[in-house]
Amino acid sequence: MTELGTVAAIFRYPVKSMLGESIESAEVRDTGIAGDRVWAVRDESRGNFMTGKRVGALMGCIGRSPESGSGVPDIELPTGEAFRADDPAAGRRLSEYLGHRVTLWPCGSPPVERAPAAGPAELEAILARAPGEPLPDLSTIPKDLLEFGGRPVKPFVDLAPLMLLTSESIAAMQRSAPEATIDVRRFRPSVMIDAPARSRFPEQDWIGRRVRVGDSVWQVRMTCPRCVMTTHGFAGLPQDSTVMRRLVSEAGGNLGVYASVERPGRIHVGDAVEALRESAP
Asked: CA 228 to CA 236: how far, in whole Å?
């Protein structure tokens, strides 16, 4: 085994697209960190759960789980107003704050009608690409990750149960964009890892490998293409399109990597991240 780094932080986001919470340890299931993205905000004008990509103010709201990580999360608005996600008035109160009609849904809810697929112009806007900048090649996404993303009973993650990001990648981006605020909250990792700086973006070298963290084993599957959410202003961070311009020029528009869970288990801050000898299938 080769030690790749050390777990520096673990994050749980009880409500998709909202700020979450930093925790010292977590149970990692085959669907990801227990309590992560177990509720989502549905955009009632579009009929989908991509609300944060279009309504940046959502990212300034906070979702907090009960201490165990299970149960219904609380939501706190930047105004200080707080309520449970299952409050009958929760959708109305959140809609009034956002100025956009939304509803709140737990994972496992009956499936809702799918929104129409984004056209080229809308996709370019969601991915925050400027004219002439290449779009990510979505045809390279592994089929099983696409199927995972389509399962109605799984948490509201985009593609994979976990997203891993190294502090070295954050530092490299900040050096490349000293005029921007490269804050981890823009990138919403599941696990932040301190790794020796063998390259500017160390985790990209882990794609295709199996890693062990605590009691859990993960397969690092693919890079994480970034979207307009990295540019939104929220929680004291300014709106800044420079973030995506630098992501495209310095990192191909990607930051962090997606991982699936081969063996569930418990992880803790301070755990070693070890590469296993066998490559992922």
From this structure: 17
